[in-house]
Amino acid sequence: MQHRNSSGDGVYSVSVYTFFTPVSTMLTTRPFKLYNEVDFVLLHRAIQRCEIETAESTYAGLYVFGSNDLRTWQLLAGNDRKTGKITDIPTSRIHHKVKYFIFVFAAILTEYSTVNNLEIQFYPKIANKLR
User: Of 18, 55, 88, 99, which is the most exposed, with the fewest CB atoms less than 10 Å away?
Assistant: First the structure.
């Protein structure tokens, strides 16, 4: 199946198999808790599993935002990869305990790209410990 976006509105179907020009892509999760049993979580690592090819002189990146109140968000971690063939984008360990997360993947992709899944490893942190 081939698709050409003739309207120029920048909306593409995620079921499209082939496109002709590089496509600006941003995938964003809704705010969510990683573990419902406790309030705070430490994110050990997140890896965007993908096999992508970016347009010339552009970056592809995975970014993690965190919040404790769903109103104030902070960039906790991010990793950019520049130009060419890229396999998997990991983030570094995050040392802030937060309640809610948003994950963002952004890139300008060529036609030979696949974005597969997001792997997350985390540790629950119990806030009310006896000391």
Answer: 18
